[in-house]
Amino acid sequence: MAVWGIVGLGAMVAWYAYDLPDVDRALAASRRPTVTIVAADGSVLAKLGDLYGTPVRLEDLPPALPQAVLATEDRRFYSHFGLDVIGLARAAFANLRAGAIVQGGSTITQQVAKNLFLTPRRTLKRKIQELLLALWLEHRFAKTQILTVYLNRVYLGAGAFGVEAAARRYFAKSARHVSTYEAAMLAGLLKAPSRDNPFANPRRAAKRTAQVLANMVAAGYLSPARARAAKARKVRLAGSGKGRMGRHFADWVVEQVASYVSPGDRDITVTTTLDARLQRLAEARIGTLLGGAGRAAGVSQAALVAMAPDGAVRAMVGGRDYGLSQFNRATQALRQPGSAFKPFVFLAGLEAGLVPESPFTDAPVAVGDWRPRNFGGGYRGRVTLGQALAQSINTVAVKVAERAGRDRVVDVARRLGLTARLKPTPSLALGAAEVSLIELTAAYAPFANGGIGIWAYGIEAIRDTGGRVLYARAGSGPGRVVKPGHVAAMNAMLSDAITSGTGRAARLSRPVAGKTGTSQNFRDAWFVGYSAHLVTGVWMGNDDGRPMRKVTGGGLPARLWKDFMSAAHQRVPARPLPGLESRPDPGQGLPGSPLSDLGGGEG
Hints:
The protein has 2 domains: 49-232, Biosynthetic peptidoglycan transglycosylase-like (Penicillin binding protein transpeptidase fold), CATH 1.10.3810; 277-598, DD-peptidase/beta-lactamase superfamily (Beta-lactamase). The protein is an alpha+beta fold. 40% of the residues lie in helices and 12% in strands. It has a 5-stranded mixed β-sheet, covered by helices on one side. Strand 15 and strand 16 (535-541) form a beta hairpin.
């Protein structure tokens, strides 16, 4: 029986050992490449991927770090042979008494075997292979070598593998210099690194650290007095990334990286177009407005995109708080632009033969059974095309769309960069479609750059760790999309929209132009405008579509746009808009036309 038992045991071992993984290959580190996103000035916006620190030797670490790990994970590490029989018995008794799995009996050696060589699947075969590999590791390596491998390869949350990467990630220092409390915090991450790390949950991390310090006292590594002193010492955490600027922008950029390069196992650095000063400015202005006037007006969210006239995104705010919501309202949200869509209608009118002085009558209009009304009610009588756009008169916009042809309006919007679904219905003239803020803002850029179509972009270059350029932007776009004469006419009309029309709250002491927009029932409020240097779009509203308290594009969005653009243009010389080089400086300005007192016509 003994002989047959040995034969059977040998056969079982052979059965489970025949497809054990290649140990040498598993010992080689494998990870996702790290992608570092930086602003134009080199400041880091985000780091994504697996972070490995340089390997550290056990003797180079402060004693408290391995002691904290041993006290918490495997107190009999130096006395067992890879399996802790006492620990297994204790865990089995605790689990039986609790009626559930509340304790584990795995040794550090078993964890090395599992994490380095095996999958996380809970199967009998994997458990037996784990035991076999643990015995092999104990036979092949010294205890200090096993513990060193464990400390250099274990996952400790926030994308960090090994104590060196984790110490730099959480404390901005080498693991060689961590304090006793910091060592206990790192050891506390081993149980639940994603849940208990100080970035994800500072309170849970502190509670877990206190438990590790108690474990160190129980194991004889610390006296109660030293544990209390360690607990009383304040810990300075490195930046978690939650407070970093431009996180919505960084996410938008990361999604595009694979379209330009295939990193493989190389770490890469992505240099972006983001202007750190403008980004901080945009975030600060939105935070201030939403916390004050926005709250009183029932506005819970806002987004802003600012780009150079060639499409280089200089600032992007996708919502009031990235930590609470990673949804990017600048690039992912589709909302009705209201009258902010009208420039494409009026451009279609110009291409159909109209001019800014073309006469129209603001009076009731019907297209089939549809009878649109002006935003403020009432009618103005005889107006010009330019006055109708400046005052955002709905009836004239509908007449222009019908005269130019709805298909032409759709074609103009598509040519300038709107990819959203646009139906040639009568209500399209009033912005009854859904667009994203970044596309709408980019579609205004041809007015600012003289008629050249652009594609919004955020990546300037991609390099590997050796500095080799893997991708560099060389410029691209659809070319000319608006004739110079039509650009000049649009700039004249949209300038009037700010100096004497619905966008007066956005007026600056330099040449600027833009358009307000408000969707039905005050669900969305927009202002998109530009100078010769910068094109900026602003959206405000609520994620659930709840109406705001009579917020129009000419109100809070125009104010936010003005505050941002005014600060953004400090020390930037004024330049005329394309085609308006001989127009007087708006800073000297006119108080407004007689139409300005009749109110806006946003819809």
